Amino acid sequence: MLQRRPSGNKLVESAAKTQEGFQTAGNSTQVTLNEIAVREFHDALSRDDEMAFAVAAIMALTAVIKRSTAATLMGMSKELEDAAQALQRVNPTNISLKAGCELFLRYTTRTSALELKDIETAKARLIERGLHFAETSTRARQTIAELGSRFIRSNCTVLTHGYSRVVLRLLQQAFSSGMQFSVIVTEGRPDGTGITMAKKLDAENIPVTLVLDSCVAYIMDRVDMVLVGADAVVENGGIINKLGTYGIALAAQAASKPFYVAAESYKFARLYPLGQADLPEERKPLDVGPMLPPRANVINPSRDYTPPQCISLLVTDLGVLTPAAVSDELIQLYV
Amino acid sequence: MSEKKDIDELLEECCAVFRRRQIEGSLPCAKKTLDVLRLIVTNKRHSTAAALIDEIRTVGYKMQTARPVELAIGNMVRRVLHIIREEAKQEQYDEAKPGSFTQPANQEGPEAARNQTGLLSKALNSTSRVMQRGLSLSNLLDVGIDPALFAPVPSALTPIAEVGTPAERSELMERAAAAAGGAGGPGERAGGHGGGGAERDPELESQGGASSKPQGKQNKKTPPNWKGKHEVIESINELIDELDHIQGSITLQGVEHIHANEVILTMGMSDTTYLFLKEASKKREFQVVVAEGAPRFDGHLMARKLADAGITTTLIADSAVYAMMARANKVLVGAHAVLANGGVVAPVGLHMVALAARRHSIPFVVLVGLHKLSPLFPTDPELLYNEFKGPGDVIDFDVVAEAFAQQQQLAAAAAATAPSDRDGAAGGAAGSSSSGPSAGNSSDGPAAASSSSASGISLALAGGAGAFSSSYSAAAAVAAAAAGGAGGAGSGAPFPTVGGPPRWDPLPGNLHVPTPLFDYVPPHLISLFITDMGGRMPSYVYRLLTEYYARDDYFLSREVFGKER
């Protein structure tokens, strides 16, 4: 796992590794707690197809609280922080996971600061909230679907990119409310998530057209609105999403088409990327066929950053927000 | 009963007034709405906040549908609903607080448990900001918690119970318990409230309303009036006062926004803009360029009034806006409504002005009172934001009337004859009725009449104007040929509708004269709103919405209301 990691993060990772080693000597329970967290995280993801990374992370951290033997809230917060770090080491480039961990940690610290009862009740309350969160997240999707389906008008054409559960839910909702519209889906190379999306839309009898990723600018003048999901929503209101989203946003902007984002509020992350270089780098192999000259480099990021000025509105479970509203929400939580 | 009937009559009357457009303008409509709502809150009995909310919502929806284009009506209804919700929440909060501190021994099992589990949410809610805004990222985890405790809400209240925040839900539950006649519970709570709500009592007495204390005894005879009502009425009065001062607070800011020797461009007549400029002219020396605002030409009045106020004024045609924009330092206009994305519905022509301003990087400033702030998006199916006036402003009404009469004749003739030899008959009718060039315009009457049914996002103006310029110029030339040409291909009565299915008749005078009242100006063209609460950016509108309206009230129609979010 360590070999695959980008060089930039190596220093941090090795530092974390030493810290972990140090803890192994001093505190073996932390290691087991971390293992529990990671196992629960994977379990949660495999249990439910609809499970989002952030929600799985919160479930995992809830499991940590359950098993925690800490006598003080301080101790428990420390355990949680360690477990959160362990979770993020599982998938260091997943920002949604990071956002979920941060959200839950923030809750625990806020609670411990405000709560004056004994630790057992505090724990019980945190567990209750953690378990409840899975339900909250499904409700969030439903809220987004209801708010967002009002943006889809009759006879309009929606362009979407890759597979997003919340976008699918929104389109289903609009379709079931009797709206006639068609969807253009990009192929979503290299993982072909667009094809998944097209299949699922077709199963719902929603008219769907599949286009190449490189066809976006060509097709843009037939499109009435762009609707995409997001891996994470960053502090300035921009989004991090599947590679190609930025290109679509630019094309939409050039053609003066509205660009809407559907995202649950637990994807709001405390990041402030200024450009593509600020995203966690990924090195995934890409099969480009045998004709590639041996000295040519291949860069294959899986996500890009779309700046807020390209985004018309964000449909979230907190309401329909302008990109500027995102930082306001984050400030509410973290200040 | 008779009292109730009076109110119903009054409501009908008010709706009729809205429908007949006897009240024009956002501010008078808003005031009228508030008057009616205040009357309902004052005179009707409601045992719970939920019942009151229900009633106001129903009445409000009725009033809004009476005049859908006047969004201020719905906005005021939402404001009142928000006031009631806040009052209910505050009351619940006040009750919960003294309860847990002064009488911990009295608490029974379930209530104690409720207080225990609710503590975190209360702690998080304790900051007034969180209380104010309902759902937010900072209370995301607490929303909808304790389903077991909030589940047994009586069915009558379920719509709100489903959509409400936990604080509201527990409030409703308590109210429901009180309404059900739990003898011990309400009395105990009333005692707790007496201690907690001490600071509100003087206010109640000054109001001269019934104090909250005898409520417990009335409980058995008639359903008690919800005791938060007095505060609600007080708040509505404040709101009405606020409306009176809106224009004043906007105009007072004039001096801050206009600098010496600036050139201000505006279009049409707007009272707020006029007063704003007049106020600023007391301290500043500046020039105003007024575009005439065709087809209403109210810019002429504006120019005259400004000149009378001693401001150097230049009147220009609308078509000269782009040319004059290079000289302007600022564009100042009024608006009809602010939408949830920060765009505005403004008098027609302003989109063009906004685009010209953007091209020249001139700030486009919109003067607007916050009673015009609507939580609807421009794409919202519920939103009807345009209205079409008669074509009289654009085309001489005599011509229209004459053409309409001819059209009627044509239609009658076509209907009378059998479809088989329709061609010949229509040709004959057209031939007999064509008297001079007006025959070329023979379809503009019906077209204009039908255009009033058109609405929607993409304004019919663009297509209509195109049709206008092409066919109008051609009209005179083809008029002579009208009889023969029309007869040759004539079909039944031509009623081409704007936006509807195309039923174009090949009569040469096919002419649309749509005169929409409003334009939609998208948020990215707007630099600043000057509201009665100060300057605001379009991107800040979402925040204003959360401040003034409860999220559950965004849509007043029942269908949306019943759904679970």
Automatic annotation (TrEMBL), chain A:
Annotated compartments: Cytoplasm, Cytosol
Keywords from the UniProt entry: Cytoplasm, Initiation factor, Protein biosynthesis
A GO term, aspect molecular function: translation initiation factor activity
Keyword Repressor in annotation: no
InterPro entries: eIF2B_alpha/beta/delta, elF-2B_alpha_N, IF-2B-related, IF_2B-like_C, NagB/RpiA_transferase-like
Coiled coil found in the keyword field: no
One Gene Ontology cellular component annotation held by this UniProt entry: cytosol
Gene Ontology terms: biological process: translational initiation
Signal peptide as annotated in the record: none
Pfam families: IF-2B
SUPFAM superfamilies with a match to the protein in the record: NagB/RpiA/CoA transferase-like
Superkingdom per UniProt: Eukaryota
PANTHER family in the record: TRANSLATION INITIATION FACTOR EIF-2B SUBUNIT ALPHA
Protein family per UniProt: Belongs to the eIF-2B alpha/beta/delta subunits family.
Subunit text: Component of the translation initiation factor 2B (eIF2B) complex which is a heterodecamer of two sets of five different subunits: alpha, beta, gamma, delta and epsilon. Subunits alpha, beta and delta comprise a regulatory subcomplex and subunits epsilon and gamma comprise a catalytic subcomplex. Within the complex, the hexameric regulatory complex resides at the center, with the two heterodimeric catalytic subcomplexes bound on opposite sides.
Protein name per Swiss-Prot or TrEMBL: Translation initiation factor eIF2B subunit alpha
UniProtKB/TrEMBL annotation, chain B:
GO annotation (BP), single: translational initiation
GO terms under cellular component: cytosol; eukaryotic translation initiation factor 2B complex
Biased composition (Polar residues): 208-217
Keyword Protein biosynthesis on entry: yes
Compositional bias annotation for Low complexity: 431-447
UniProt keyword terms in alphabetical order: Cytoplasm, Initiation factor, Protein biosynthesis
InterPro entries membership: eIF2B_beta_subunit, IF-2B-related, IF_2B-like_C, NagB/RpiA_transferase-like
Family: Belongs to the eIF-2B alpha/beta/delta subunits family.
Oligomeric and partner information: Component of the translation initiation factor 2B (eIF2B) complex which is a heterodecamer of two sets of five different subunits: alpha, beta, gamma, delta and epsilon. Subunits alpha, beta and delta comprise a regulatory subcomplex and subunits epsilon and gamma comprise a catalytic subcomplex. Within the complex, the hexameric regulatory complex resides at the center, with the two heterodimeric catalytic subcomplexes bound on opposite sides.
The protein's name: Translation initiation factor eIF2B subunit beta
Organism the protein comes from: Chlamydomonas reinhardtii
